[in-house]
Queue: 2 jobs
Job 1
Amino acid sequence: AEAPAPDVDGIVAALNSAMANGAPGAMARFTGPDGVESLTAGVRDRATGAPMDIHARFRIGSVSKTFSAVVLLQLVDEGRLELDQPVNRYLPGLLPDDRITVRHLLTHRSGLADYTNAMFADTVPGFEAVRNRVFTYQELVDLSLSEPRTTEPGVAYRYSNANFVVVGMLIEKLTGRPVERAYERRIFKPLKLRDTSYVHPDTRIKGLPVRGYLHPDAAGEPLVDSTEQTVSWAQSAGAVISSPADLNTFTSALMRGRLLSPETLEAMTTVTPTDTTGTRFYGLGLRRYDLSCGAQVYGHTGTVQGFYTYAFSTRDGRRSLSAVANTSNHGAANTALGGTLEAAFCGPKPA
Ligand SMILES: C[C@@H](NC(=O)[C@@H](C)NC(=O)CCCC[C@H](NC(=O)C[NH3+])C(=O)[O-])C(=O)O
């Protein structure tokens, strides 16, 4: 059946709802067979009042995990490593358990603890303590290993940033270059993602920035401008900067098979449930959301101080939606922004 046209009013309503729940601004960009819809609401800068701008750049958080997964899977396609081999075969002595495989990292089934839970237990103090820090990959792995494993390898899905820190270490070991070189040569340049960059540990967003605002835990406390930070606590798990159009291009090109072999893309999109709702799944560095109309969309969400992002595409790559709100730790705003997915991919709600 032909896909429904996007519900543009529904997308706008979701952006306004994100603002009603604490986001200074929000925007969404949909690409489909009938063209592009670019929608903005509110401001990208509270101090100047500059309106949200569809060409502005922002921190995409864990959508970076999909970029990292693509690079590692390209190395699998090139025969440089195998998914079911132990991580320790490629990074000798790194992990205390030889049973943890490369696939366990990409599926969040390694059991490596997520050090960000402790790091950001107190949102603003935690952020201020690390916003200008530069961590080595090893320091982040050590933070993870200082906490107990969360599952026996392969037994259960336990989301952890540590998994994609190790993915970054694998990329640098196998390519002999910093991870940003791999992103640039293998994804940014071939897809002409001119608004997309990996500038760690630089703290600035180059080009036209969306400024991000962090809500303190205590209600009523003023927002914190969290735009400038190293994101060194995440790196290959969350430090990419991009734009709505580049995220549309990336998710569509990925699903169209422009970045990986058919077999590896098939492996990437082979998912298991992440919860009991029957609508949320994870493959290899990739989420699948099953929407109310039956549409299945593939991509990732991203949470980094001051920014919440969705970047999803249909399996055929013909339709894609990217959306961002410039606040992060107001769950209601994040859920409201998620309404853009239903509106974009399912069309108007039946009357
Ligand atoms: C879950 C999300 N993961 C990511 O994007 C990664 C990079 N971010 C995190 O793990 C959250 C870090 C804390 C954010 C902070 N929260 C707190 O400080 C809570 N006390 C904030 O909301 O900005 C994803 O995969 O979609």
Job 2
Amino acid sequence: MKAAVAAFFELPFQEKKKYAKAENEIEGYGQNFVVSEHQKLDWSDMIFLFTFPSQNRNFKFWPLSLPGFKEALEEYSREMQKLAEELQANFSVLMGLKRDGLKRLQGGELKQGIRMNYYPICSRPDLVLGISPHSDGTSFTSLLQDDDVTGLQIKHNEAWVPVKPIPNSLIVNIGDATEIQSNEMYKSIEHRAVTNEKKPRISIATFMFPDDEQEIGPVETMIDDQNRPKLYRNIKYVDYVREKFSRKMEGKAHTQFAKLRTSDH
Ligand SMILES: O=C(O)CCC(=O)C(=O)O
Ligand SMILES: [Fe+2]
């Protein structure tokens, strides 16, 4: 998978451009999170593809002429879907539900999209980030990253902490949908990626998220009117994501709009 992704980013720009995303769309090859011409851009190149369920695959964005790419992505996607099922089942139990609790509430398996990020070397890593601070809107995100280049950082106690790669392992991050469903028991993690002067870096993020039409909100078992009142309103997932992408990414600021005000209690 890593080799297939590296081969894609090594293609000449003219070739990669054939898979370019349309303006205001998220699928395809391009730049991340651009909402205004005035913003400082992140130092990265990326391609995002919807991968599960398979009828959501839009092959016009897939570099099918690149030998082995489709096969590698399909196999990787299949394995990630197993991970998604396992995470969904285990988090159901953590939230006081049966193993199939979240699956039932969400009307089925989580959907999946894979974003492949390429961060070129950067002569001024002190000035430019690879990805600005954000949390993912997903239920969960898995990250496969280069074994020997550290780039990912998470916000912990108001400080940025580098996440050193452990060879042959995945990082699993909690996204906003899990924060909302768990009534803030399991918080989405704020993270960013930094650039460096010495080596380019690749990361492969698998986003696992509810169906667009699904309404998400704190599950009943995580609400206790006395001790743990409902902190988020129910919202259709697609509306949550639309709102998130219409804003400039600034850490977790976007999660606020789904919050119930304390005065509502
Ligand atoms: O490159 C990384 O380690 C982080 C990527 C990321 O946060 C994302 O694609 O959402
Ligand atoms: Fe992310």
